[in-house]
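Retro notes (design track)

What went well: tokenization of the new backbones is finally stable.
What didn't: we kept losing track of which sequence belonged to which structure.
Fix going forward: every design gets posted as structure first, then sequence, in one message. First example under the new rule, 274 residues:
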């Protein structure tokens, strides 16, 4: 059987938006385990947030943090050197994103240029982040340990999305939107980072002459670059039952269900056909 790679967003996809539980995805997760298919977590979350989740999932595969800001590849995953990787705490780390301090400075400039109220994670207390995310305080603290991506809220509905993006571009940066927050970041996204991993997995599978089959799951605009890279893109429903209207791709599969329920249904159905 050809190698299958699954790339997945977390919040609102594998994880329930409110409870952050993946229990509803148990059937598909067990199927991936039986198939030996790598489940690659691709999120706007920080490394500090994702490592405990990987332990709970018994996941030992590479993962992508902060909207493609960096790839963390457990040492020994690939039997060849990883270009531009540094070694850190048992990982080969490939950094793509812009340093967080630069993003914080740029957010202040954008706020002044637009004359609006932008609040990034760096402006908020841990208690405020916990309130906005619904996370316990200990997990909210992990969410503030940013390295490559600044989530923010816009408290001025009069500022158009295109103006916000233009102001970010003037700083040499760009904006995207996740399930809860806008994000300011550099020349990185989930698609760029995922494509790099796909290339290394293709090289690993080169002995049999077959490239891996790739599946991607997400629910928001910041997942579109990832979904555009895979063979089978799956768009998961939002909590209100809708699909993100800004994610439009050829051959897009629309999951029948919200969050991990839709994630589970769509993935098990697709794998049964492959």
């Amino acid at each position: 059987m050809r190698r299958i790679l699954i790339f997945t967003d977390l919040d609102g996809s594998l994880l329930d938006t409110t409870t952050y539980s993946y229990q509803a995805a148990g059937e598909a997760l067990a199927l991936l385990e039986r198939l030996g298919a790598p489940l690659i977590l691709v999120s706007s979350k920080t490394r500090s947030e994702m490592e405990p989740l990987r332990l709970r999932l018994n996941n030992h595969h590479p993962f992508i943090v902060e909207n493609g800001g960096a790839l963390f590849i457990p040492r020994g995953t690939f039997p060849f050197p990883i270009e531009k990787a540094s070694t850190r705490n048992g990982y080969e780390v490939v950094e793509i994103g812009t340093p967080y301090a630069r993003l914080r400075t740029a957010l202040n400039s954008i706020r002044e240029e637009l004359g609006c109220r932008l609040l990034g994670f760096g402006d908020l207390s841990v208690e405020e982040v916990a309130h906005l995310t619904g996370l316990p305080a200990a997990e909210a603290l992990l969410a503030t340990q940013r390295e490559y991506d600044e989530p923010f809220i816009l408290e001025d509905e009069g500022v158009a999305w295109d103006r916000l993006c233009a102001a970010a571009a003037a700083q040499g940066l760009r904006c995207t939107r996740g399930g809860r927050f806008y994000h300011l970041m550099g020349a990185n996204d989930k698609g760029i980072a995922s494509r790099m991993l796909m290339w290394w997995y293709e090289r690993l599978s080169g002995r049999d002459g077959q490239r891996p089959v790739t599946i991607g799951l997400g629910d928001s605009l910041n997942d579109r670059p990832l979904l555009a890279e895979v063979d089978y893109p799956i768009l998961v429903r939002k909590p209100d039952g809708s699909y993100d209207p800004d994610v439009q791709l050829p051959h897009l599969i629309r999951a029948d269900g919200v969050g991990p329920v839709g994630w589970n249904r769509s993935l098990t159905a697709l794998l049964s056909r492959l």
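Added context from the reviewer: Residues 21 and 40 are 17 Å apart (CA to CA).
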